[in-house]
Structure formats: structure tokens, C-alpha cells
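Researcher: We're teaching a course module on how sequence relates to structure. For the next exercise, students receive a sequence and then see the predicted structure as C-alpha cells, so they can try to spot secondary structure elements on their own. Here is the exercise chain.
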Amino acid sequence: MRMSKRTRGLLLAGVANLALAGLAQAQTTETSEETTTATASKLSLGKVVVSAGQEKVAIDTPQAVTTIDQEAIDNAQASTIGDLLAGIPGVNTMGGVGALGQGFNIRGMGTGLADSDSRILMQIDGVTKFYEQYRMGSFFSDPELYKRVEVLRGPASSTLYGAGALAGVVNFTSKDAGDFLKDGDRFAVRLRGGVESNANARFGSGILALKPTANTELLGMYTSRRSDNYENGDGVEVAASEASSDSYLIKGRYFIGGAKGHNVWASYQNWKNDSTQIYDQSEALATTPVRRKTTDDTAVIGYNNDFNGSDLFDVAAQVSYANTKVNQTDTTFLSGVLESEFSYKTLQARTQNVSKFSLGGDNVAFLTVGAQAYKQERRNPRRTATGTNHGAATHPEGDMEKYGLFAQGEVVLGKLTLIPGVRVDWTKLQPGEGVTTTTVVKDNGVSPKIAALYSLTEWASVFGSVAHTVRMPVLDEIYSRTATASTNYSLNLKPEESDNIEVGGTLQFRDLFGQGDQFRFKTTVFRNDVKNLITRGTSTSSYFVNVGEARYSGVEVEAEYGAKQFFARGSVSVIDGENRLTGAYLNTIPADTLNLTLGYVFPTQNLTAGWRGEFADAQNHVTSTSLATPGYAVHNLFVTWKPQDGLLQGLEVQAGVDNLFDKTFQRHLLSLDAEGRTFKLTLGRTF
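Model: And here is the predicted structure for the students to work with:
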């Protein structure tokens, strides 16, 4: 695995900083439960994970997973989803930096121009979101809508969530009324707003939570966000960087018979943007402006029943509707086209049951079984003065169906935890209007895995997993063609097959340097061999082709320390990728990065202050020097104040300075310069 001297330095510096930070606190032995709790809330590896099978803390999960809870979401002061995911090891944003330009990349797998995003599953409340438009982003939403985000890295996540998650899964959980109704409240109001100095950015959100009856909870939420183009560190305005949007969420839950484990719920959320954009949002290469009106809808009806704590039955089921639509006008470069519509309308259903079996003593087993169904209609009507055309050569219309069955076990035998799983999927792709072939393409795949975690001692454990995952082609990959040839479709594309191996270890100590302190460390080493990788072809081949075999490998290190009022977090990500047939680099591999956070809690003042550092190595392992990016170091400051008494009780204040030294830099895989120095202030209060 490639690791430059600078990367080794980043890795050693991160571990050393956490160790020195701990030693700096070694002389402090007095503590209190209140202070320890406040400090522990700033740490990550101790947060509960709900998306990886049975509920457990992150450090005890035999795969790489990161949880962002409500406090972390608020403190991030993120304008876009890409901002919210920044700093997670192995996770990067590709393309532009505005809300319409972002695609995502996990462990080197993710979007390139007109490449597939289906290697990463993006889910909102269990609803898979998939959108793919030429020179556009892939996921449109607002960070304010969510109370929890979990990022599961690696293809072992495919078992529970869907075929083809070769890179991983990102699960978003929207806010609930119960998050704001406390101590028997019948209603609550939450107001939050903020400003940024760069780009004249501002946002405001309001939440109304109601409990009209003892068994009913209702929530309504609205968020508005406005941001102009920002300036880089040199004071140069960065085009196509604005991030304006409006969104709302309506959600309700009814507890049947008053039982928390037996309920029916429904939600509807909408995100929209209407503005003039640079046409090429994916790579920001073109300067041609277009007007895009983007609307994203997600509606869900769900049912949960734990059968009063039954061991055999704990059922969750849901049906959903989603539609992501872009109306594109003012396209002067498309002769005769007055308006283009790009829509992905999806119907989904999912059900699963979890059973628990006692194996004697403390030994226990869980079995999750379920099924999924998915149908998506992809449409692209292009209206002209003389009529409507359907689909472009590079954006064919069609229907995609997916069906899946899955089972995952979790067996706890003393110090050993085993998690076997298998998923079987079927897909059917059918061409739509404008496609000159009537060939229906069907595929299927079986994706087995096994993961294990073994506790060597109370403070050390090892884990590993082996997963085989199949990703079937999507409509774009099968029915796209070059503009000059009408029949060179990719009808014979083979599904991608991933063989992923991960090994790692964890350390966790209490009272290491002082009474009540905590230290946690987790490292994961992975190798992912992908056969029949699907990528863009040449001008003389089909539009998409299989390239044989690619290898992605890397290491992720996460560490954190908390003592009395001090906390520290750090993560390192080193990823490599190559075409194993030619030895060529893969251009979707991110730079090696180190992220560090140091913070201090002032309990008397209800104040938390700290520093965040982002450090990246140069990335020169690309197929063209024009794609290379230099390394950089960026420093940020943050302060959070939450007064607990007096007239300001309930107020929450987040303030910060990003890019403190106003550095001009570009994150690898992003096509635009990053934001220059910006001052942020956010105020929130619940009544």
C-alpha cells in the first residue's frame, strides 16, 4: 500500500497528539459525573450504532462505522450534506461544492463524470435515494432535517440495505416530535438560524412539535437557506458555489395502545431549489449558465410492532414514494430545446423481523430476515417548439426493478461475536421511449458475508470480515450510447463483483491517566477487489464497458480521548486504487488525510471551545497531471455555549471560524477551490 513520508508523518502526528493530550491531563484526577458525561458526549467511538444489526456502540461493531448525532449535526454548522460528512475517515465529496453539484465517495469508490453512484446507498428513513443526471450531483437535502446520520463503510453493509453497496451506506434519520417534547409537554417550538461572513450565507428553521393526545406525536418543520457565491482565500469569487434551498418536513407517529414498541408513523419531506447554475455542476468545467428548478420528495408510511417484547417477533415494515425532479431551461447550447425534465420516480417496500434466541448463560443469538421491492421510472422529456422528444443518448429513459431477500445473524458466545449474512437480489431493466432497442436486461446476484469480533481482554479486541458483493448495472450503464452511433448499447455488461477483506483491532481504557478518563482506538485495514468494474468506454466502444479488475485498499485509524473537561479526537485515512490489468491509477482515489479535534469544556460557564485541523497529503497518483492536487493544512476554531439558568436558559449558541488563516486550497476530488476564511454564528432555542 502506498504511504508517502508525509502520510506517515500525518499518521504518527495524529497518534502522538492524542497521546500528548492525554498526558497533559494526567495530573488532573478530580472529576464529576456531570463533567464526565459532558465530555464523553464529544466523543464518537462510544456512540450507539443502530444501522449495523443489533444496537451497539461503534467501537464494538466489527466494521468501520461513524455516527453523527443531533449535537454533532448542530455543532457542524453545515450548509450542505457534503459539509456534514466532512471529516469522516474514508468519506469524501466529489464534483462541485454547491448543493446541486455534490456526489459522494467512500473508500475511493464514488462518482466521476456520468459515472454510477449506485455503489453507495443513500437512505432517508429507510428510503433509498438514487438520482443520476449528466453533469449534476446525486443527493439533494438539507442537514437541518436530520437528527442522526450513520455512515457504514465497506460492502458488508449490502446485506441489510441493498444490492451493490460496494463502498458503503449512508443512513439519514429525520427529526421526530419526541425529540423536542420533554417532561409531559403537549407542544414545543424550536427556532434556529445562522449567518456566515463569506458568501453572505444565512439560514433559518422553525419546528413545531405537538402531542394532541397521549398516543400521538406530530412535527412540522421548515428551513430556508440562502448563500451567494463564496470567495477563496485569495478573495476570488468561486462560481457555481451558491447553496440556496427551501425544505420542509411533516411527520407523525401514533403509539397503538400506548406501547412505544407498537406504532404506525408517516413522514413527508420536500427540498427545492430554483436558480441559475453553471451547467457542469459535476466538474465545473463549463461556464454555460442554465436555470434549474430542482424538487426532491420523500414520503413514507411505516409500522413497527415488537409484540410486547416478544423474543420471536419484532417487525418493522414500510412503503414509500420518492421523486427527484429537475426542470432545466435556458439551455441555449442545446439547439431547439426549450425545457428538459429529468425525473426519478420510485416506489419501494421493505419488511423485516428480528428474533432473539437464548443459547444458555450469557450466550445469545439474533436473526434478522427481510425482503425489499423497488421500482423506479426514469424519464427525460425534452420539449421543443415542434413537440417532445424522450431521452438523450446519454440519458435514456427506462424502468428499473429490484427485488431482494436477506438474512443476517448475530451470535454472541462469550467473548466471540459472529455476524453471518446473505442477500439475494434480482434486477430488471426495461428501455423506455427514445431507446432504439427493446431488449430487457435481467441480472441476479448472491452476496454473502461473515464478520467476527473477539474480545482478547476487557480493553482489547480484534475483528475481521469477508464479504462478496454483487452490483448489477443500472439504466444509464446499459442503455446509454454515443451521440454518433444509435445501436452501440452496453447490453452485455457483466455485474460488478466485489471481494472485500477487512481486519482491525480496538483498544479502550478507563482511568488511564486520571480518574474517569476514557481512551478509545480503532483501526481498520481493508482490501476490496472489484471484478468487471464498470466505467466509461472509448469513442469506438460501447458507452460503458467492463475493465476487468480494480483493487481498492487502505487503512482507517480513529482515536479519541476524554478526561474531566478535555477531549480529543483524531482520524487518519489512507486509500490506494489501481486498475490491476494495466497498473493505471484510479482517478476516484482521495488524498491521504488526517483530521484532529482538541476541545475543552468549561462546565461553570456551560461553554465548550476547541480547534479542528484538517491535513491532506498531495495526491499525485492520477492518470493526468491536471488532476493532481497539492497538500494543505487548514485550521478551524469553534465555541458552543448552552446557558442552563436565567433568562437565557435553553439558548444554544454555536460560533466558529473556518479556514482561520484564509488559505487558498482545493480538496482532491472537488473541482472548485474551498471556501476562504469565514466566521459563523448560529443561534437556537426550544420553547
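Model: If you want an answer key for the exercise: The chain has a mean pLDDT of 89. The chain has one domain: 5-686.
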